[in-house]
Design goal:
homotetramer, alpha+beta, Chorismate synthase, AroC fold, five-stranded antiparallel beta sheet, 19 strands, chorismate synthase activity (chains A, B, C, D), Chorismate_synthase_CS (chains A, B, C, D), Chorismate synthase (chains A, B, C, D), FMN binding (chains A, B, C, D), FAD (chains A, B, C, D)
């Protein structure tokens, strides 16, 4: 229940205010150079306290790899890792010990388990996504060997949104602003909106777009292993995610087939059908409305998809709620919280995509002798 | 790769033009009355040739249960079942043996496996969803014992759409029109649009909404077992699905937290936290923007979600494409096809939801001693 | 719970007296020639009524493949199959409807499920192993492409036993006698013992030895995927199996390390470490006490192991037992039963070994990029 | 590949000479008191350096629980844990960097992964079993709530063996001698044999017997989930294990059915068929040759089984071998090693049994509504 993937797997553990957050990556192919600086860099992209529009919680979030790497390379053994929690203010949460915060997991965890670690959201905290970023960084190190790249960005905050077509943007600009948006003008607007919302003690939602380049054809399996369904499950597992679409998605539901079909055209290269390496082929597509996946299997085009995030449930304003005994309470949350999850969700989206693509790629190796 | 679920599982087999389509349901609790007429009835809802707006392929689609039922009750043993394919026109597909139809799975299957059963879409045909409907009917028979009901309907065809709020509709009306839409006026409009699109040899997409009532709190697991992620994966695995959202979904990404949070109010009943039965509780929610799931775990409210479907890729008009040798070809598809997948997708959405909810319910039984 | 394997999987269904017994094989690599005559031949080796020392139940046991094969080759899609039950004498079992037969699964199934299909042992019947033989035959067809062979034989019946060292026997002689024993003299003794036991209405146990030749080094995974543990689980899942050992097994527990260690010697060939094909290497082993597996991973030597089977529980003599109400009953079983499971267990052992080796082989392909 | 179990799972990581060894336990039921002193106590039973007949490697092996426990109780969240490696003498292994030690995993790991952590056996070291002992202790804490107990002991060292019938021994005496043998006289003999073997630089094998008391009827699933097959897989996954048998095992293969069948007798208590709690019943067994499991499902009697261990492969004497380049080498191992794995294997056997029984128990809860 806390394990992602089938061959490349991540099992996570940890709570917001426990001793540490971490996990075990199993199925890492052997012989891959493990660049620990890169892993830490990815983690730093998710770290709290990066800018004025993220939470004030400041933790170094230093990852320690405990196993599976020998003389700089993966050995094929599982990679255990952890990040110590160092800056918990557990007392900030004493007031909510017996309360259910609105639209949090407080009530559902209590219903499910009959017990709940109320400190900082416990197991349901977004803090636990850092394990995913570590595993995603490892997956990226493998994919890099195959020239597969994964890039996500903030494409909507509140009602400020980019064009759906990701090809219109220069993705190298994403990290140049705190919102992680490739359109500098929109980025400024988004940042201003988040700052304003924060000042009001409120929060705001948005959308992350993700693009996978260099993915070979043949990834994804029929029925329960369709590539977009695996990506969807991975994305929807991220805290605060409320929706997933790929290709033309919900908008394309209003189209006709004659508009949405991607026509094949002849191409010059010679045919190549291996499912292991990015392919040249004797055909190409006129359009990519399908989003790089047809019948649940990658077709060699760019894969792109979008993930909707709701506004963060923790508001720095008075809210009505009920305590365990059923009495009404007015709640004033303290603690340090993000007014908008989007900028820090970007590396998590990338991480989940990297793990999913790598897992599908490994499985596809067994499709033929 | 062809198995859904963890404890209540369905493994499917079959191709559009093979001998039979079927599957194995494992994990069916013992002692459940198995109403075979109900199973056949569910299958009839998915059957081709129901009305003028579905495909002309006519098959009786009689399901045979081969095991796991004794004297009318489930025994706990796996339930094998099959439906013979009886009305294949495989010759209709001879022309496309060496072609890749646009936006179908032809090219991706060929890339993946180096071989492809071209007849009627083979393994990628929507025909194979009938196995899911059989398994979903079995799941419904279990959920019925717990007063959990699942109802889906067509909420959008092309640009004709219903209000997002499913509470506005009388769900008992859904089966009274061929579109399976609870708004009789909109249903007529949708039917007319589909008929027109069919006449043009074109196809059209849409959206299915699904509502789960009576689901107890406590279903869904942290991290990889979040209930909405499992539902999302299940829905996205349905042929032609392009997007999934629950609660306020993509629209809610533009909202503020103060708008989207669901406030708890005191309720009169005494506290009850069992995760096994629909619960009374000492609190209730003012709104249900969350869609019945918070932190990935059900909260006892109605669960609702939406699934986007693209227009069917098979057009009854000339299309450009490329053959295996890389030569351009003008293709004229024959065969019998749906101009709009929505009406027949409704029972498949329900089936996948029933399986997912039952599986989560069984797992939740192990959360405490 | 009814699925074997991780990548090459078999999900089975069926009861002794239900409509059919069958299963779904998923993960069959694409492009493999599927020799249906070979599959039927393997099934015939397991068929009842082959000789005077097996059960008198006579069924043709014709297998029908329902999917996953196109123009004689596997397509990568799941292979559904079934064998109709045609010669049930369910009335033979009316007397035991309310009884628990000693050392059968009657009482445990009833305890577990609260319901039981009493006819012919229901789900617990050895008849359901035929699904395994079909899947094993498919696995053998894949392994044949890689020159990996699997051969089992009866090495003990009662107290008549062969030498432990399988290299002493000509394995091509196994099918020349009804006991499936490579030593013609011992085979005769075993056959006489079984015939005598049958006449007394009693039954007798024994041991099957299995040898895998041509298996490359590198199969099996650390911890939960050790090759011998996977083989052990597969063998112990066969009806009436009571023990498993590989290499020197239980006997070797009395040895010293200096006796049991397998010494490496230089060999002439050049080094080769690929885990995908049978390897030449620059070393060889002086002995093979390890049984071809070291640290849970194959080392390229012959893999050999032994499986103990208890005597069949169904006796054709009066036995004391108790009915559901707790009353003592003297039971006289009718029906047609094997006096010794060994001869017909041989193809089942081979089938489970073939599936296990193929599954491990597919997984090992993902150990490196 | 490094994960055990289906609902109660353990994922392990770590190498002999890495930073730490640990794991993640997922599926721990919520609300269980977590007695950390008991967990440490179990780990101390496995610790090196306990007596003159175990390895001289001395490590405190202090376990740190990192998550999943709040105010002394399990929360239902995964329990991450680790034990730091503190006393590695990695230099002891420099000589074997390019050698393959006989009957170790050196060659097979190298064949599989193309890279190998040679220090202390790396991932293949018996040191990594400590993760299992921690997880097993957690499982025992759950089983204790249900009055299920698990006890293992050394029943054979070399050719010194106990009677097969575990009922003949007073199991409370096991911990009173360093061999963990309930027969004080045999324990002395075994200890002397191990000491002698150690002095010779040699090693010796043996057998562990394990008994599960209080296990309710109904645990274990048909086909791939048979309880004895799960126990077998768990036991065979322990380092140096070579065989597994339950009930009368290999010896019983020579018996007749009329000897081995367990006859049911009437009992006084009223019928009870729940699969969740130890049961009273209206029947009892005259004998328990079956070993508490019939048809793969527990019957409420004591479960007992035996595990064969080969002699440790590391000898403190000169051995011939080959290096990576294929040259013959005479190898003299230094390092600190057990002359006999048995005494320290006892707690590992118990741990694997506890995990397996608990997992089966959780699954059995979903057999009926």
């Amino acid at each position: 229940m806390n394990t992602f993937g089938k061959l490349f797997t991540l099992t996570t553990f940890g709570e917001s205010h426990g001793a540490a957050v971490g996990g075990v990556v199993d199925g890492m192919p052997a012989g891959i150079p493990v660049d620990t600086a890169f892993i830490q860099h990815e983690l730093d992209r998710r770290r709290p306290g990066q800018s004025r529009i993220t939470t004030d919680r400041r933790e170094a979030d230093r990852v320690e790899l405990l196993s599976g790497v020998f003389e700089g390379k993966s050995t094929g053994a599982p990679i255990g890792f952890l990040v110590r929690n160092t800056n918990q203010h557990s007392k900030d949460y004493d007031d909510i010990r017996n309360l259910f915060r609105p639209s949090h997991a407080d009530y559902t965890y209590y219903s499910k388990y009959g017990i709940r670690d109320h400190r900082g959201g416990g197991r349901a905290s977004a803090r636990i996504t850092l394990s995913r970023v570590v595993a995603g960084a490892l997956a990226k190190l493998v994919l890099r060997q195959l020239d597969i790249s994964i890039t996500a960005y903030t494409s909507q905050v509140g009602d400020i949104q980019l064009d759906r077509d990701c090809r219109r943007y220069d993705l190298s600009r994403i990290e140049s602003n705190p919102v992680r948006c490739p359109d500098p003008g929109k980025a400024k607007e988004m940042e201003a909106l988040i700052a304003q919302v924060k000042q009001e003690g409120d929060t705001i939602g948005g959308v992350v777009t993700c693009v996978v380049k260099g993915c070979p054809a043949g990834l994804g399996e029929p029925e329960s292993g369709k590539l977009h369904a695996l990506l969807g499950a991975a994305m929807l597992s991220i805290n605060a995610a409320k929706g997933f679409e790929y290709g033309e998605g919900f908008a394309g539901a209003a189209w006709r087939g004659s508009q949405q079909n991607d026509i094949f055209l002849p191409a010059k290269e010679k045919p190549q059908t291996s499912n292991l390496k990015p392919q040249t082929s004797n055909l190409k597509l006129q359009t990519n409305h399908s989003g790089g996946i047809q019948g649940g299997i990658s077709n060699g085009e760019d894969i792109y998809f979008r993930v909707a995030f709701k506004p963060v449930a923790t508001l720095l304003m008075a809210q009505q709620t009920v305590d365990k005994a059923g009495h009404p309470v007015t709640m004033n949350v303290r603690g340090r919280h993000d007014p908008c999850v989007l900028p820090r969700a970007v590396p998590v989206v990338e991480a989940m995509a990297a793990m999913t693509i790598l897992d599908a790629l490994l499985i596809s190796r067994t499709n033929r002798l």
